Amino acid sequence: MEGLLDHSLRDALTRVGGVDRCVSEFIRVTGTLLPCRAFERVVPELRNGSRTAAGVPVRAQLLGSDAVCLAENAARLAEMGSAGIDLNFGCPAKTVNLHRGGAVLLEEPETVAQIVAAVRRAVPAHVPVSAKMRLGYNDDRRAEECALAIEGAGANELVVHARTKAHGYRPPAYWERIADVRAVVKLPLIANGEIWTLADALRCREVSGCHDLMIGRGMVSDPGLGLAIQAHDAGLSVSGEQIADRAAPWASLLPLMWQFWQRVALHVAARHRAGRLKQWLNYLRRSYPEAQQAFDEVRLLQDPVLVTQWLQRAQLQSKPI
Predict the structure, then answer these.
(1) How far apart are CA 128 and CA 136, in angstroms?
(2) pLDDT at 66 over 80
(3) Which of 215, 247, 279 is a domain's end point?
(4) Is the pTM of the predicted complex or chain greater than 0.70?
């Protein structure tokens, strides 16, 4: 999720809990063995045992079409201690696809297999190699073929985003097609796409047949969603509403926003920092009425000093007297 879920937001969301593992935004590989600093810029968790501050493992994700070059970069990441290597066959961005990266490779199952096999050979056996794919590029006719290619090439795990590139991010997600893929492959399968609430998560499990879920924008919108799913699995409540009410209250998010803001200041130019906070608040409006008021208050702010002052006031106002 380039431009949204970077290491600063990973840090904040994993502090909430309910997350078993993260995957970084993609690192584009185009014919060059990248230096360690390039990987650490995207995945600074590599300097912390490939874990967030909360202790959640992070796998570095690679994107490209050159199997040999991807393998060389994967080997370097393994040497740096990455918790695993993830391969992106799902990005729908036009620029990425024009350069033979992401979802366009789903038109070439043989290339997908070559990439996965090369990376699997290049890293030690104990380093997991996973892949993420969409159902296809313009249509989903080759979904099963691509999944079988990934499995046959030795991947340990596969995430399926239940839309094609042509679908983009428009609802709905076609979870039933994940069930079709699951019927033909034996490797662990993880469902992804259009999971915004606990009810969505439970319905996705039912339709796809997958217990494990990857959640992106839904977790950005509701940082307590993972906790709500875990609470349901533990049998703490049969009511999604009851679980959600205690998962991550608004007041608990304000200190996380402060930590997020401090991290953003370390790597984002001053003129862009306010935009990062507004971006998160914009997603939070989907789940929190309080986020709408917060968004309205910061919407016109650009000066980082003024944003800092707003965050400090918001934290003070949220504390009980």
Answers:
(1) 24
(2) yes
(3) 247
(4) yes
